[in-house]
Amino acid sequence: MTNELLAQTSSLPTTDLTTLRQYLLDLLCQLAYKEGDFVLSSGQRSSYYINGKEVTLHPQGALAIGRLLLSLLPEDTQAVAGLTLGADPIVSAVSVVSAYQNRPIPALIIRKEAKGHGTRAYIEGPTLPEGAKVVVLEDVVTTGKSAMKAVERLRDAGYEVDRVISLVDRQQGGAEFYQSVGLEFQAVFTIEDLQQNWARSHS
Fold first, then answer.
1. Contact 52/168 with Cβ under 8 angstroms?
2. Which residues line the annotated binding site?
3. What is the mean pLDDT of each run of 10 residues along the chain (203 residues)?
4. Binding-site entries for orotate
5. Is the entire prediction scored with pTM above 0.70?
6. Which fold has domain 6-201?
7. Coil/strand/helix, residue 109
8. How far apart are CA 20 and CA 185, in angstroms?
9. Which residues are annotated as a binding site for 5-phospho-alpha-D-ribose 1-diphosphate?
10. Cα gap 106→81, rounded to integer Å
11. Half-sphere exposure of 85 toward its Cβ, with a 13 Å CA cutoff?
12. Could you tell me the end-to-end alpha-carbon distance of the chain, in angstroms, rounded to an integer?
């Protein structure tokens, strides 16, 4: 981490959200964003790759993410949830920060396959009342299909889900897909934000 970024870390719990957002953008560009020739999990080739876990599992990154995403949640949010593995550190960060801000919001983790023993559940975390309002979180959205699995599992469990929030939108159809199925979608950053910031820091 650069000295400039390090200097900001002590104020992360209290700094204003605009400064915090720029800090997180710089951290994503420094640690998570890479340019080159990559094959994505979808099989598509790409000239860049974003490894969100480099930041979501980073102590200062997790704190910044927790504060920023918590600020975007509707007031009536009763839980945050996401599909394992990419969303696990994000929902955990938001939940921990929510406790510090006196707005405790539990986290749920959605398995890709049902647990093979015990309750055989798809959803890990506290049991919520029927109809509880849950927001699905994601690190990077491409087509939107992975977060949709979480939405479907949560709805099957009787929860109300009408919103997905992502750290980064690759702008490859995810936003349009969510709109087509009636979900609100919000991203903290677009891929353009990352690329412009990355280019400035490498010029």
1. yes
2. 111-112, 115, 117, 138-146, 170
3. 58 91 96 92 85 96 97 98 96 98 97 70 93 97 92 96 97 96 98 96 83
4. 142, 170
5. yes
6. Rossmann fold (3.40.50)
7. strand
8. 21
9. 111-112, 115, 117, 138-146
10. 9
11. 4
12. 18
